[in-house]
């Protein structure tokens, strides 16, 4: 009963789920070529003031399948830059210019952005969220929640 | 549209008899109750008590008048009517998790049970031993089977599973039937062969597809050439046999749909957590699926003046002075719809279908009156 379990407690660190033979393993989708949106292109479009094009460009090549966290964070930062650059009155037009896939992808980036709030990001994201919700409906939010591979 | 509130508890599952005068349903407990229609009222005439766990699936074989039930106690029972009472026969399913859904085959010589043991049990009656025997379909199912539907040829079975896939298997039992002819889904059909599996990304050309969601409901069309399924990521998909590349998904704007059925060869009705049935139209030539309309006629809320007292009450409760009608549920069902069944007309010319849900109510929908009530609705 009073056995010293500090050293003998290594078994407590075993992750039993790894040894479960019925464990569900996601299918690996080889996606080493998904590098996220092109930073240079997006930056130049923002500087030019062509925000619609910047939105389309930043939603290209979403890093959905990679496990590389850096790529994902870079993509998220870039998206946030574009979304903050929009004027409040233009947000609705920006959302209208997207197709259904685009709205779903935008919703994914918005929720990813909510996870790490910075100074003004949440306010901007909330405005985008309202317009994206009007376009995509609750279905787009359900797809963010159920997606196994997300940005 | 008729609505009858049976219980306060959810109706877990239901099944109709041949002439639609009796309905067997599970009031979210271990029993099955059979109600008989008497004018506008429903009277409970039988109570089937044999299960030790919640009854998760009921199916009524209309021609041979047998009921099969399956439950969370890992058992299934086949009930036959003898001298005015229903007598159960145990079926050993050899599963070690709860059974989730059960369906008689079109010829009613076998039935399929989907379970949490990640397999489908196909059960048939063996004459020599006077006993129900079952065979398992295991590969490549990786999670609970949530829904099943038989193809009209009595051999093929569609299964929707929690591993995000919808599959078509062959359930050919050589002891009870002849070898089947070729179908658009395939020509070689040994038992357990998988003839179709939905891919993860759904519609062609989607780069932003997620991983999909649990497949809640599956349904073959009347001809068996089309298969529709609904998934937890709020999508509806249709696949046509033989054309494996064209799986058409529609990402809906609603909450996930839990059940689906064909009402004509091109029209699909689905219902789910949004509490109202929804129509989808599939165009075979263009291979596209479109949203057809919401099939619920909202009751017009009476506009009356709000007293000062109500204004303050609303301010207190909702932070706004007006009665917000968006939050109020003005649909027929007051909670999610979990099952939909065709009452009249079959799956190619359905004229009436019925929905049951978690509000303990049963809704009967008439297709003709829905078509006339909604101006833009077209059932093709």
UniProtKB/TrEMBL annotation, chain B:
Gene Ontology annotations of biological process type: Arp2/3 complex-mediated actin nucleation
The WD repeats lie at 48-84
Name the InterPro entries on file. ARPC1, WD40/YVTN_repeat-like_dom_sf, WD40_repeat_dom_sf, WD40_rpt
Q: Name one GO molecular function term.
A: actin filament binding
Cited Gene3D superfamilies: YVTN repeat-like/Quinoprotein amine dehydrogenase
Q: Which PANTHER family match?
A: ACTIN-RELATED PROTEIN 2/3 COMPLEX SUBUNIT 1 (PTHR10709), ACTIN-RELATED PROTEIN 2_3 COMPLEX SUBUNIT 1B (PTHR10709:SF10)
Task: Give the protein name, as stated in the record.
Answer: Actin-related protein 2/3 complex subunit
Q: State the organism of origin.
A: Eleginops maclovinus
